Amino acid sequence: GSGAGQVRSHAISKLHTSRFKEREGQSEFSKNKDKILELKASKISYTIEEEILKAEIIHSLKCVESNYSFASTNGDSKIFEAMFPVSKIAKGYRQSETKSKYTIQYGIFPYLKTLLLEDLNDTDFTFKFDESTNQQVNKQYDGYVQYWSRKHKCIKIAYCGTVMVDHCTAEKLLEHFLELVEKVKLNIKFMLHIGMGGPNVNIKFERLLKSSEKIKNLNKNIISIGTCPFHIVHNAFRAGVNVLNFNIDSFAIDVNFFFKHSAARKSDYRQIEDLTEIISHLIQRHSSTRWVTLRRICSQILEQHKNLCEYFIKFLPTTTSFKSTVRDTERYKRITDILQNEISMPYISFIAFIANDFEIFLKTFQSVKPRIHLIYSEISKLFVALMSKFIKSKLLYEEVCDIVRSEWRIYQMELLPECYYKCSEELVSIGRNQTSYWEKAFQLAGLPIVSKLLCSFDIDTLINSFETKILNDSGSPKFPNITSLFKVVSSLSHGISAPENGFLINKHIIQLHGTSLDPETIEALKFVKDTILSFGSILDIPITKSFIQSVKFAHSSYKADLEAKRRLKEKEEKHIKTKETEEFTQSVSHVSRNEVEMCNFMVQTKTTTETDIKYRPSSSSMYQITVNETHSTVSQFSGDDSEFRFIYSLPIVDAQDYYALVDIASYSKNLNGLNVNLMAAIKDVGVVKDIVTKTGRRMKRRELKLFDETCVSFPLIIWDSELSEFADSWQCKET
After folding, report:
1. Exposed, middle or buried, 46 (CB in 10 Å: 0-12/13-18/19+)?
2. pLDDT tens digit string along 452-489?
């Protein structure tokens, strides 16, 4: 009784009442949620500098996603500050054309590339490639990888890099492949298959790759399943069209180009619809290399046939400029010949009719999702669809397909256990389009009924389901290796649509930024664009601390790369200049070479005075020849000089004829005044200093630091101006 009274007394107290009001309306869920949010915030806390960098990353990703130019970011800093005047992030945000470029190329691109390599680590993959000439008239070799992504839990096709190439013979393709693999750091130990186009040169490249030492040393077997089926089907379709002896490509291109650059012709053609009562539409552009557009083009020509005849055959001859500018042109003659030919329209109708089946096939495989499991069935469907247009269905299905089915059934009976037939027999009476069919199928496979999976044929989802849910009676997986098998099979290439689509992205990048854009920047933009597409949105890309750090050091990486390129350019220019000088000297020596014969001369140790430097050409020899006008003679040599030609160049110094730095430091007094050879590395190159000697002579002084295996630092002073200038080309710890 006393306990209950104390509770009632506490319930009406001021302290309890105030606390109850504070807690009123706040559920346990909301309290826990607040704690979780506080915990997350404490785990991921950013400084104001990191928040600014994060904003710059998001905006740079947006520029790539929406195809904004680098120059479009100029002035954004002031705009954001005006939009958000109280925001510290907006005040600290800085962006410009140059910064946008190096943020993407030296900050975002390296980080995203690291993510790809981490995801690809120890994972089986297919390497796809294709080559094409871009708008800069440079030929590029693009590489892609198709693999099971542990991060995205699906099959992913990712762009991995580009190398610029010249020729594309089979031998060159092998070189390009190895160069790109080395550049991207791909581990070809896990390479399953090579996805490529149909030319014979690619087939030969695959043979060369399999027989190369690199593959043999890895004891690696590369799966061969043929080349891209698109090219095979395309060539078959093209061969069939060519048999008709009717050039539909030429006609479609002629009609399109006739109107392309003339607004007056387009206007006149639209007015034809008043006569024919058929709405006028211009024929769209057709590419002979993309047969997927042919059915649509043929349909447009058939629809516009009456308008085309009215315009080209009846209207144009009545115009004033017809005789002078149209009548005698080859394009007009080709167009009218086809329009007036009675057999042309049946040909076009037939091509459109046949192209429809090919278009269905192409659309099935123009996907980044794995389609390798559909190639056999879809090509079979295409073959049957085409043959059924020429062969009776009874003959095609009953006499041909039944034989094929029987052979497959015999193969099943030999290899598959009896339990599989029991499963299939129970499903025979149920149609595949019925939900009950799939419910029964999932039950027989030991899978729980999942409504999303019943209507889904997406192999990525099925793989994920098989990974954990195919269980036996004890709860362990029935087929422990089936997940790995599905992932490997799904990683095989079904075509090279990804590289071909990549060339379109490449084209848009060059059109946006100009043809002067360097290949490294194009590669970075293309890689970032491809990564954004794989994530789905820039907001789905996690901005981690390491991501921010990568962008933070983008500027220093950019400056270091500029310096490296500057040095390389200077080195190349100097090399070219030296080469040109040597070539010129050699050419002159062969034309105007002179040998002289000297008598009564004196050989002395070479002295270096101001007069010598000014009037006498320098040489690498330690000695000089002195002649006397009275006693010495110098005359042109007219005899055979073949025995002297071996001394045209200086002899090579003996490999052992050098001093260690520690010996020079220890015995410097004994070596004073002697010429010695050194073999050491450059540790540091000092700056050139101008000094004035006691005699008033101006000289240049440069100090070097050398090292070898005996001494960590050895000072060396250079007084020779030419050698001092040459020291600019020396690289520390490399020269």
Report:
1. middle
2. 444 444 545 544 554 455 566 666 766 777 788 888 88
Tell me the two tokens of residue 680. Answer: 């050491």
At residue 708, what are phi and psi to the nearest 5 degrees?
-145, -165
- Distances in Å between the Cα of 52 and the Cα atoms of 49, 329, 531 are 5, 63, 22
Q: CB neighbours (10 Å) of residue 248?
A: 22
> For residue 682, what are the β-bridge partners?
706
Question: CA dihedral defined by 260, 261, 264, 268, rounded to 10 degrees?
Answer: -10
pLDDT tens across 610-639, in order? 555 545 555 657 778 888 888 888 888 878
Q: Which two tokens stand for residue 352?
A: 């459109």
By three-state DSSP, how is residue 603 classified?
Answer: strand
Q: 653 and 677 in contact (C-beta within 8 Å)?
A: yes
Residue 112: Cβ-neighbour burial (10 angstroms; 0-12, 13-18, 19+): buried
- Who contacts 441 (Cβ-Cβ below 8 Å, separation ≥6)? 423, 427
Strand partners, 699: 691
Helix locations, 185-262, DSSP H? 200-211, 213-217, 229-243, 248-260
pLDDT at position 222 is 87
Q: Which structure tokens are listed for 649?
A: 């160049």
Question: Is 50 exceeded by the pLDDT of residue 202?
Answer: yes
Nearest one of 703, 721, 720, 713 to 681, comparing CA atoms: 713
